[in-house]
Amino acid sequence: MATFLYKLGRSAFRRRRLVALLWVALLALAGVGAATAPAATSSSFSIPGTEAQKAFDLLEQRFPGGNADGATARVVFQAPDGQKMTEPAHKAKVQKVVAELKAGSDQVAQVTDPYAAQAVSKDGSTAYVSVSYKVSGMELSDATREALEKTGHDAQGQGLTVEIGGDALQSMPETGAGEIVGVIIAGIVLVITFGSLVAAGLPLLTAIIGVGIGVSTITALANVLDLGSTTSTLAMMIGLAVGIDYALFIVSRYRAELAEGREREEAAGHAVGTAGSAVVFAGLTVVIALVGLAVVNIPMLTKMGFAAAGTVLIAVLIALTLIPALLGFAGSRVMGRKDRKSAGKDAGTSLGKTAENGAGVRSESHATGKGEGRPNAGTRWARFVIRRPVMVLLVGVLGLGAIALPAASLEMGLPDDGAKPASATERRAYDLLSDGFGPGFNGPLMVVVDGDKDAAESTVRTVEKLDGVVAVTPPTPNKAGDTAMITVIPKDRPSSVATEELVHDIREVTGDDVLVTGATAMNIDFSQKMNDALLPYLALVVGLAFLLLMVVFRSVLVPLKAALGFLLSVVAALGAVVAVFQWGWLGSLFGVEQTGPIMSMMPIFMVGVVFGLAMDYEVFLVTRMREAYVHGERPGEAIVSGFRHSARVVTAAAVIMIAVFSGFIGMDDQMIKMIGFGLAVAVLFDAFVVRMAVVPAVLALLGHKAWWLPKWLDKALPNVDVEGEGLVRPQGLADGAEREFARV
To answer: For domain 72-169, which architecture applies?
Structure first.
């Protein structure tokens, strides 16, 4: 593989104008496709195999045009202290709102009058207007949302408090200052790492191009493939992350090759042949993790995974082709000012003299390969770990283990309006309804009876006797009289354990012809399905990646160590998420106003995303160690060599990812905040504790055994030459010049 990628890198460098033109053409083509494609809507959300989904499917058959999955809104009114919503002035105001809502949009299916529907609290202080729509929340037009918000705003007056809740106001979070700050920090880190604006700009530029092509393609195909407007979110996040990482690795290796005395084209070939091999396999691990989401058997997640995997493949191709092409345009400006001055002073001297490498680290020439030169921070840290491997290993493992303890109390669910910040109208509406009608009123259960009137009435009597039930409405039959809907109001809030137990109780005491659905039941089934899929997904991803890393490192213990270290960092990150978002520890520091269950997707999402990024760092760091080991260095020396060449780059990549993910913590949306915090903490733990401390400590303790591989397995596994052994011999030198490359 190294030889093929070496030729690819040199070819892209020589034909840089053609390569750059092709990528620009692809970006333009994808952009035109996205601009001319119909606007994306939300993809059809379904959870195959769950009772809640079966109930929705039955409702669509038996109640045609019922819009069971349509968006809903509740306009909640609260009278001033001492007054009631039944007073004539307040009643007239509410009925005016009802009329305005009915005429406000053609997407409105039904608006209920609270006085006719008995939607007034017992004390008369609170009333609400229910609005149902013909389409889902993500399919509502901006005009419809604006009409809803305007109606609520205009209703303010005479001391009335008016708030709006429900999923009708649901929309994609807008990019805020936090994400912009994260990208700015990424740029600053790149400038510090490379000491060159040109070198720092290349990873950002190519990552944006890759994300642009990927997201534009997704947008262009959204309606054809039913991808939905949310599919591009994961693709953008992952594409930006790996795009910066992969370009960073290639540019860093290119600068190091230049510092060793190679010509620019030759350096590009060697950079792609060595670091590019690591990029290919790191990319494959990310693709495995994302495509593996199909195991969950939720179509929306499967499509999101495949779309994001496609963006990762684009990032890999850009790193292998566009980066060497742009390096050809950059010339000597890819090196920092000090490096260029040093190169000028060293002109004409022998290759054995000291030169500045691409990461700003002094190293001896490849002519001898024996000198270590002036040690950098990575070298000093590696030597410290080698001297005290047991202590470093214990501190790292026990520290992460302690942080992981809260994960044992993990409770999964989907946050509702009660988890939104107190400043949001959805949260205020949620609280008004809870105070006026009870906590369970915000999460009613829909019970579907596949039977006649007698079966429905029998179900009502059975459900009324259960603990945790506040009220049960009379059954609403369909026209044929063979199906009925019953609404059950729980005693507790929707995301509570008690409500989840009530759903299970209803399903246990009723027959197979009775199905429980609704938003609350759907969330419960979704959480259960995600929980059931976690172990199979983890086994698939880790198992396939283990085989892949075995091919890369020609070792059994190194991939095993990588997988175990990843599990440790993910569990520790989940522990931190539970402590902050479920227990409330340091919640005010991160803007957590309401604790609750952890988002159901969080464990699988973290496994997929963090696994890919963790393997990036593992492959790039340990590949350098493997490269030094197979070229004759002792195990301890190989660890030091790996850190000398890669520690600074891996550190920069991790800091960039932490900065980007941390930008999402500042958003108001609780789910986005949780994702940003979880990913940032996971990268922090994995990069700086597992990869930088636990990994070298374990390798130091194992010594030569770390690289052991049974002979029969060595023969069976393909030799992909990630270390670039095939590049030792001279290949295609410019101007026919002969050069000898000796590596230790």
So the answer is: 2-Layer Sandwich (3.30)
